[in-house]
Specification:
- The protein is mainly beta.
- Helix content is 0%, strand content 51%.
- β9 and β10 form a beta hairpin.
């Protein structure tokens, strides 16, 4: 089973870009049929799927955030990166990286999550 570790700044100013990295160990991000997903949970709310990048490098985004979201990967570092542009306080949340085999169904592995607060 792979291990996932999120990292990034805990505080971001409004209108700036939030950038988080998910470092994967115990497996390759190019392993066939694996999808690497970003999920967040705002305070007092449920989980929200933000987007994913598949083993081929194809990306998928939730329509409501597609214009502000970019997911990429660095295969040499075995990392997946989330960028969320023009953030507002409503983007304050606990951000998770998760993986699963196939584009749907339960997730196989989760990172511990990283708290991001958007505030000036």
């Amino acid at each position: 089973q792979v291990q996932l570790q999120e990292s990034g700044p805990g505080l971001v100013n409004p209108s700036q870009t939030l950038s988080l990295t998910c470092t994967v160990s115990g497996g390759s991000i190019t392993t066939n049929y694996y999808y690497w997903t970003w999920i967040r949970q705002p305070p007092g709310k449920g989980l929200e799927w933000l987007g994913a990048i598949g083993y081929s490098g194809r990306t998928y985004y939730v329509p409501s955030l597609k214009s502000r979201t970019s997911i990429s990967r660095d295969t040499s570092k075995n990392q997946v990166t989330l960028q969320l542009h023009s953030v507002t306080p409503e983007d304050t949340a606990l951000y998770y990286c998760a993986s699963r085999t196939g584009g749907s169904g339960p997730f196989d592995s989760w990172g511990q999550g990283t708290q991001v607060t958007v505030s000036s």
